[in-house]
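To whoever is on call:

I kicked off a structure prediction for a single chain this morning and the downstream step that reads the tokens threw a length-mismatch warning. I double-checked the sequence; it's 379 residues and nothing unusual in it as far as I can see. Pasting both halves so you can look.
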Amino acid sequence: MSVRIAGIGIGRFGRRTESGVELATDAGLRAMEDVGRKPIDLLVVGNMLGEVLEERASPVPRLASRLGLETAAGLRVEAASATGAAAFHAGAAAVASGRSDRAMVVAYEKMTGAPSPIVARALSRALAPEEVAVGGTMPALSAIIAQRYVSHYHVPLSAFDRVSVHMRARAALNAAAQFTKPVTEEEVARSRIIASPLRLLHCAAISDGAVALVLERGDDGAVVRGMGQGLDAFRVVDRPSLTRFVATRIAARRAYEMAHVTPKELDVAEIHDAFAPFALIDVEDLGLADEGTAAEWFDEGKGTRNGPTSINPSGGVLGRGHPVGASGLVEIAEVASQIRREAGSHQLDRPVRLGLAQSIGGLASHNFVTILGQGSAPA
């Protein structure tokens, strides 16, 4: 049974004055208008940090009341920074199984209302307590991964600078992105050190934002072709390799097998680039480039707007912004928008027939891959 994305609602990412629920309500209403306010019988809400940063729980009834969905069933999903992708997989599975006729998936996060140290401490809840106890944070552990990647593959640090330049150039075309001004390699290289070798412009900024999708059965438009999830050791120190994300590789293999496609067939990919080196690792884990060659892959223009697989035309997490609960869902929404030719100023010139969205949960401990295409998967 095929599942299609029938409605899309994306709000602007960045520093917003509204509450998280208000942002989610706006996105939900946009998605409902997109389908002509057809009946919805399931509401799936993704949110990671609402209790911590906003001191607000129970987002499902709050949103149901605002969206007029009190008669629908509802559930909340949380999977760290992959929350939005996990919520989408839950909604798609409900529709595909026949349990739901039409589901709305909403994901949101409100982060800028809290001081940065509080946000950093909240994000560290998705890490292994033993590593947090000795100073582990998202940037610190990601810096260790970056160091290992550089030393193992002899990649120059300037490769990270060029990734940030790529993402910010893409975001400059996206009216909903947090950052709409391009940056140069020199500006990235001069930005302050966060955790060596990671600099400020190598790291995604905290952000506010929300996105909503309406799912229903159907074989037209942007259709779910494949879904996969993978897990890895929760403690980074327990992983045999720090130059790859095993959870992405498992999720990608499962999604490719379900969709009956190969990486070479992808027209577009929205990848999770919370830190610039992650983009290089993601491209390799998804099978778009061989191990240790992603820097050259980017330099050769293979991920540009006109490349064989355009990477993050929306600007990605680095450029679009990273409201953690929403990022995994907006990646899927962006791929769907490209397929439906509704991406506006950052719409690719060529037809997009097949696209992939990849989302990282925590420090790559539980990752998701979603493949969308025009029409259902072959039998």
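Update from on-call: the warning came from a stale cache, not from the record. Cleared it. Sanity check on the structure: The first strand starts at residue 3 and ends at 10.
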